[in-house]
Design goal:
- The chain is 46% helix and 14% strand.
- With 746 residues, it is α+β, with helices and mostly antiparallel strands.
- Helix 1 packs parallel to helix 5.
Length: 746
């Protein structure tokens, strides 16, 4: 069978797998599925990035998804299909591109066979695949697999531009165009890909005959022209606004704004690059594939190895750029995937070369069958997946627990039937959602913010969003997430985006409650604001706000606090609400402001004191000089919203003892990581001098007279000290009531 036929079967398999993912519409609107759909719906509405809205993940990714989204029907199901289809196609292209570079003889055959084997394994084992591979096959929250696709595309085409063009000028034009295109792809992987492409162009010029220094300028000039023209056309000549959002608003805010707010999760200085960043990318030895390949290229240089190295370097550079600009956690996945794939392909190439000679000595019938076996295998896999798709669709249509929403193109749980009816009956009202979700996807309308959610209204965009959400132009309805639906991220959004929730509480009242959201109706008159009261400030032994509250509840707090001198540092204040990951009730403050307003949950007595600290108080000592403090109660009744009140527990109070803190949330049970939580073995104790002296690296920790493990390192998280251990995770449900803790040198 021809290669074209095999490629067509591959595409059909990818399409069937993607259709399976688009049957049920997600209800977790905080997920990236709605984030992706928001940009696609806006493009379908005739809007353009920079001019009308600001895509958080980059222009190139969005425009790549759009043709598939448009062909699939331009609804929510089409967005799910497009994201999954292009992600799987990108993974197939990544493996095939590397395969074509790994083996020089029979490139096309080896590339097609390698990609087909991978796709067959995916289709047969989906979704029971290794986590490192599954991460590359699912769109995820932020389309990371698609953002990291650009090096494979660019350097695959760059190889063609150099290898198969005898004219150096044509090659330089091609390389410059690829570099310019890469710059528009995404903030993280686009930049290193473009820079390395220009470096490759410079190398090509130096190895060309009769080269001149002036020729080195061709590719950069072409890249500048292509990038300028592309961004001008794609933004409707609003490139300046788009660039400002990407490189000022987002780049300036995302470091402090997004968690986790743990010393161990950040790159605070050059030493962390060697102690944290590089080890992440070389964990378990996989990262050594790149330097090993570089050593091989030094002794046996070739353009193919150079292209493979460039892909790996771009993936590592993009991941490191994302970590330095934000936080650690998962950004090394694209590079590790490259390492494992390259190693596998080199092994497969060696094995296939050895087997070919043996294969040719077989009777003539066997090689003939070999040409059709891949096609027969793919047809079988396609048939199996199509039958599964048909069965899933039949089950969905006959399931009395689900119902079809034609506007969305897929099924929702029956619990959302009343909510969808409420949406349709209020279709003509102006609505803004905290996170672009079911309401906007059903009505195909857009709110007052030019971004997909309030969490992406960063920098100047936040200022404009605040203006659009107030005054006579304010939306009639605002939709937010219920506390019960997301006990970690809803409190974070309310804490980090108090400017948004403050407008909500003052001008809206609850109107309709769905299984995951609250629809708020605008009031005829605003709620009367309570008067500000002064709170006392204690600077010793550590900065603390003492608020003389008379009853438990929500309070708005305003403090004057000079920004940290080191912008890599972050000031944290305890507000007893913020609880994603290991934030443990602490809220990050913008390092670009001297005055801060935030919401806190307080109760009379000890729970009315809020301490202020920094991300790494001992490593980066900062003068936390609180100049002023005032507070007032949030004048809002939450009757009818039973789950709105946060779980306020004394464990969030900093205990004076050195024992375990019985903190309970989504990730912790009695201060220990739950078995199902994505956390390593660790203990959480109060961050004080006594515990810093007590818990030292290499010491052993005993809980209930059991040797739990050896301390590897410590990290601060607000007013808490995280004690990381080696060994297996501790099951807090099996420790019993005796949680006595001791530390000793073995």
């Amino acid at each position: 069978m021809s290669y074209l036929g095999i490629i067509l079967l591959d595409l059909l398999i990818i399409a069937v797998i993607s259709l399976r993912q688009a049957i049920d519409i997600p209800t977790f609107h905080l997920d990236g599925a709605f984030q992706t759909a928001s940009g696609l719906f806006r493009l379908a509405d005739g809007q353009l990035p920079g001019r009308d809205f600001y895509p958080y993940l980059g222009i190139g990714v969005l425009f790549t998804l759009y043709p598939v989204f448009w062909l699939a029907g331009s609804n929510m199901a089409a967005s799910l299909f497009a994201a999954q289809f292009v992600t799987l196609l990108g993974s197939l292209l990544s493996v095939s591109s590397l395969a074509a570079l790994v083996r020089k003889r029979d490139r096309l055959k080896f590339a097609v066979v390698s990609g087909t084997i991978m796709l067959t394994a995916i289709a047969l084992l989906w979704p029971e695949l290794p986590p490192w591979l599954m991460e590359r096959l699912a769109p995820g929250n932020s389309l990371r697999p698609l953002r990291s696709l650009i090096p494979y595309v660019v350097f695959g085409l760059a190889y063609i531009a150099i290898r198969f063009s005898a004219n150096w000028l044509i090659s330089q034009i091609g390389l410059g165009s690829l570099a310019g295109f890469a710059l528009l792809w995404s903030n993280d992987f686009g930049l290193p890909t473009a820079l390395l492409t220009l470096g490759l162009a410079g190398w090509h010029v130096q190895h060309a005959q009769s080269w001149k220094t002036s020729k080195l300028l061709v590719a950069p000039c072409i890249a500048a022209i292509v990038a300028s023209c592309s961004i001008a056309l794609s933004t409707g000549f609003s490139a300046a606004a788009m660039l400002r959002y990407n490189f000022l608003d987002v780049a300036g805010d995302q470091y402090w704004y997004f968690g986790p707010w743990i010393e161990d999760s950040r790159i605070l200085g050059l030493e962390d690059i060697f102690s944290r960043l590089i080890p992440d990318f070389f964990a378990n030895g996989w990262g050594l594939v790149w330097p090993a390949l570089l050593a091989m290229a030094i002794f046996r240089p070739s353009l193919e190895i150079g292209a493979i190295l460039a892909i790996g370097a771009s993936l590592a550079g993009g991941g490191m750029l994302a970590v330095i600009g934000g936080h650690r956690g998962g950004y090394e996945a694209a590079y590790i995937f490259w390492c494992k794939t390259v190693l596998t392909l080199f092994g497969f190439a060696f094995l296939s070369t050895k087997l070919e000679a043996y294969w040719q000595r077989l009777p003539p019938l066997m090689p003939c069958l070999g040409k059709w076996l891949p096609a027969l295998l793919l047809i079988t896999v396609l048939g199996r997946n199509y039958l599964e798709l048909t069965a899933l669709r039949r089950d969905a249509s006959s399931d009395d627990k689900r119902f079809l929403v034609s506007e969305l193109g897929g099924y929702l749980p029956i619990a959302y039937r009343d909510y969808i009816a409420h949406i349709k009956s209020n279709r003509q009202k102006t609505v803004t959602e905290e996170y672009w979700g079911l309401w906007s996807a059903t009505t195909r309308r857009f709110g007052a913010m030019p971004v997909d959610s309030v969490i992406h209204a960063l920098g100047d965009v936040r200022t404009r969003a605040r203006q659009n959400l107030s005054g006579s132009s304010a939306p009639q309805i605002i939709v937010t997430t219920t506390h019960e639906f997301s006990t970690d991220w809803q409190p974070w959004s309310m804490s980090a985006n108090w400017w948004f929730y403050r407008l909500l509480f003052e001008n809206y009242e609850p109107d309709f409650l769905s299984p995951s959201t609250i629809a708020w109706r605008r009031l005829a008159t605003s709620n009367r604001e309570a008067d500000w009261q002064k709170c006392s400030i204690a600077q010793q032994p550590s900065p603390k706000l003492n608020l003389p509250v008379l009853q438990e509840g929500f309070y708005e707090v305003e403090i004057a606090l000079p920004a940290p001198s080191n912008r890599r540092n972050i000031f944290l204040v305890r507000n007893n609400i913020n609880d994603p990951g290991l934030s443990l009730g602490y809220l990050a403050l913008s390092p670009y402001q001297d005055k801060h307003q935030f919401i806190a949950y307080l109760a009379p007595g000890q729970n009315a004191s809020l301490d202020v600290t920094s991300l790494a108080p001992r490593r980066n000592p900062e003068s936390i000089a609180i100049a002023a403090c005032s507070f007032r109660p949030v004048n809002k009744s939450f009757d009818g919203i039973n789950d709105w009140k946060p779980t306020f527990q004394p464990p969030h109070t900093l205990a004076p003892s050195n024992e375990l803190l019985p903190i309970n949330n989504q990730y912790l049970l009695n201060g220990l990581p739950r078995i199902e939580a994505p956390l390593p073995p660790l203990l959480i104790v109060t961050n004080n001098a006594a515990n810093s002296e007590r818990f030292k690296a290499k010491r052993h920790v005993l809980i209930a007279n059991r040797d739990i493990g050896q301390i590897t390192h410590l990290s601060s998280a607000g007013g808490f000290l995280l004690v990381f251990l080696n060994g297996s995770k501790i099951d807090p449900t099996k420790l019993g009531q005796d949680l006595s803790l001791s530390v000793w040198d073995k």
